[in-house]
Each structure stands twice: as structure tokens, then as C-alpha cells.
Amino acid sequence: MTQLSPQPRIRLSKLRDIGWRLWDPIGLLRANGPSSGNWDDEANLGFADEYDTYLISAASQLRQGVPSAQVADYLVQMECEYMALRRDPTTRKRAEAVVTALLADQSIWTWPDEQGKFGQSD
To answer: What is the per-residue pLDDT across 44-65, written as a single tens digit (0 to 9) for each?
Structure first.
């Protein structure tokens, strides 16, 4: 019987740090947005998970070897088609910045220990 390699989990806090800092297509935390500060500030916890699905999908695609340009296309599509936001000069740049950051930050992944258990961190 073939034993499967353990799969890593995403550290959601790290993923959110990247997504909120570099992407934030709705502009919730931008200077002119309805809120300010960081995604994990008490006042912002009600919408902290707003982009999780898209960011998890993007990170997972990259982990599976999907080309960077295709993952950036996915983020642009989610922003412009799914969220129905207007494409502007920053749309593609923000998506590419997220992809670059996801590829550069291996600490977004957490691995199980020898017993297959994950630590208490997200």
C-alpha cells in the first residue's frame, strides 16, 4: 500500500496579510475605504475573511504548479467578473503582486509533525 505524503495547510493569517496588503480589490482597508488599519484589528474582524476563498485558491493553484500568469488571471477574473468591479490600471499589478508574494513566502504553509498532527497555529 502506498502511503500518501502529508499535505501542508495554509496559515490563514499569513495569507490574509498578503491579500489585504497587496490586493484588497473592494478597497475596504484603503485610505479612502470604509475602514482602516489591518484586517486583524478588532473593528475589521467582521469582514476579515472577505477574500479568503480567492486567496486560498490562488495559493493552492501555485502550489500545484499552475503558471503565475494564469493565477494572476484568476485573481483579475474574480475581481472584474465575479465581484463585478471595474478594471483599472492597478488591477493586474495588484494580482501579480499577490502571486509574487505567495511564491516568495513559504511561511504561508504549515506542515504536520511526524504523527501527522498540525500545531495550534492557523
So the answer is: 999 999 999 999 999 999 999 9
Q: What is the DSSP string of 3-62?
A: PPPPPPEE-HHHHHHHHHHHT-TT-TTSTTSS--S-TTSGGGGGGTTTTHHHHHHHHHHH
Residues 77-102 pLDDT 10s: 999 999 999 999 999 999 999 999 99
CA distance 76 to 60: 16
Q: Which amino acid belongs to residue 101? A: A
Q: What pTM, to 2 d.p., does this model score?
A: 0.84
- Do the domain assignments include residue 39? no
Structural domain tally of the chain?
Answer: 1
Q: Which domain holds residue 104?
A: 9-30+48-110
Whether 101 maps to a domain, the answer reads yes
